[in-house]
Amino acid sequence: MQYQSQAVAKPYFIAAIGLFVGQILFGLILGLQYVVGDFLFPEIPFNVARMVHTNLLIVWLLFGFMGATYYLIPEESETELHSTKLALALFWIFLVAGALTVLGYLLVPYATLAEITGNDLLPTMGREFLEQPTITKIGIVVVALGFLFNVTMTVLKGRKTVVSTILLIGLWGLALFFLFAFYNPTNLVLDKFFWWWVVHLWVEGVWELIMAAILAFILIKTTGVDREIVEKWLYVIIAMTLITGIIGTGHHYYWIGTPYYWQWWGSIFSALEPIPFFMMVIFAFNMVNRRRREHPNKPAVLWAMGTAVMAFLGAGVWGFMHTLAPVNYYTHGSQITAAHGHMAFYGAYAMIVMAIISYAMPMLRGRKAANSEKSQVWEMWAFWLMTVAMVFITLFLTGAGILQTWLQRVSDNPEPFMVVQDKIALFYWMREAAGVVFLIGLVVYIASFFIGGEEKKATA
Amino acid sequence: MSGGFTKSMARNIFYGGSVFFILVFLALTFDTTTALPQRDQRAAINETVTLGKKVWEDNNCIGCHTLLGEGAYFAPELGNVYTRFGNSTEAIKIFIATRPKDGIPGRRSMPQFNLSAEELEAIAQFLKYASEINTENWPPNIQG
Questions:
Q1: CATH topology of domain B41-144
Q2: What is the interface pTM, i.e. ipTM, of the complex?
Q3: For residue B34, how many C-alpha atoms fall within 13 Å in the half-sphere facing its CB?
Q4: Of A46, A199, A441, B2, which is the most buried if we count CB atoms within 10 A?
């Protein structure tokens, strides 16, 4: 660790992993509710468990992004963080606010939560992924602004690199687009139209900038390839991200009341969205092939290459599969969407966070560059268990989605939703089994932090 | 990526391309907002529909259902539930009001939300309004 203030990343990473565990446990509850419909009913109905599952995902990824930023910005800027105290204060505020929100979901009916948090004053709740009470949303904005102030001040006083600039653009964009969460008109079409300005412009826009910047940082550090080459790649990748992804928002505007022409704009531009992800694969493998050093931290390189590949498959290939309007007409809002969502989030965002944790954590724990051989082996087992499990979760949901689409929407005698759900239950059972394997992988991942000590013959 | 293609060229493509497509997106957004009054049934939005959307949100209906294909995939699509229930707001109200408090053994069941008569009418009117939005003929059939 080159700068003392990088140490604030550590609690952020620990919190991220802790919340990740919560997310997966609730994922398993949801998966079981798909086949055992009354499981935990009425104590934890599906909608509550899903809210916890998706909100924990978002929050742990945000913890991961913030931790990544606190770790890499001082090193990129070649200066200490503007304020370590602010970073730690915001950590606790964010963690407590997040925990209280999740407890609110679990302990009182959602309508009661809306009432006691004053949702009537500024109604923003009850929309997918934006279920947080308005007061929590305001808290998120405050934490985001404090965080952005802290890192922007750091970048301004130090060296300006392409990596830190792109990361900052991504993070400022994240905060900016979140503001649309406060716009909630009664007009359902307008509500949905601008809801996507948070959701799509996050995950298919500015989050990709954050991901690409973190990936570039890890590759610079682990491969020793000239920064100029990495930065050129970074610019081209994120240029393609925004050139395709901004108009690509149109693939959400086919069937929600928006004009017909979005079927053309959305289909054409979103069909190009896999390009930046494919370039990330080429980029990661190219840099590793041209490496000028053997970095002792093998899992970090594995996660870095893995995130590129899995993001391409999950976001790129599985996204393309149902993005063209004539296809989406039949697959919209089916298990195909769920399949894509799972692999894309895991590949692009869960894995990039685990990549930076893998790279940074040994140093944050006072080790020279890497964990012991034994610990690394455990971590790589965790990588493969979780990644292969996610591939199967995605394949089983895709199978379910194809059957659902056929039986409910394409066949000559379309059948009711619940009748179809019963017929495809086998796929849900197999998805749940794959989910258990994922949990085992996660347990192995956590265990890897407590196994072995420092690598004795660290070379870097 | 070597030779004549420099980092500053890559940077210019990023900034120039992004700004250009942001402007195109804003232009399309503007055009959409001017086209929406003919499509989004805004004339049907009254106090009851407004309350209905609030009931929809306060009970997190989107946590199980889809509405115009967006939401969770655990329970049926509701953008066309009004037509699926025979163009009847009464049928919607009866369905919501009669959900068993303790669920159905072994099966998925909608929770009992204990809505008032006014709230039931409002959510039904909201779903009727949603069904009349011009969605380019989505969903493909009555099953949603």
A1: Cytochrome Bc1 Complex; Chain D, domain 2 (1.10.760)
A2: 0.97
A3: 5
A4: A46
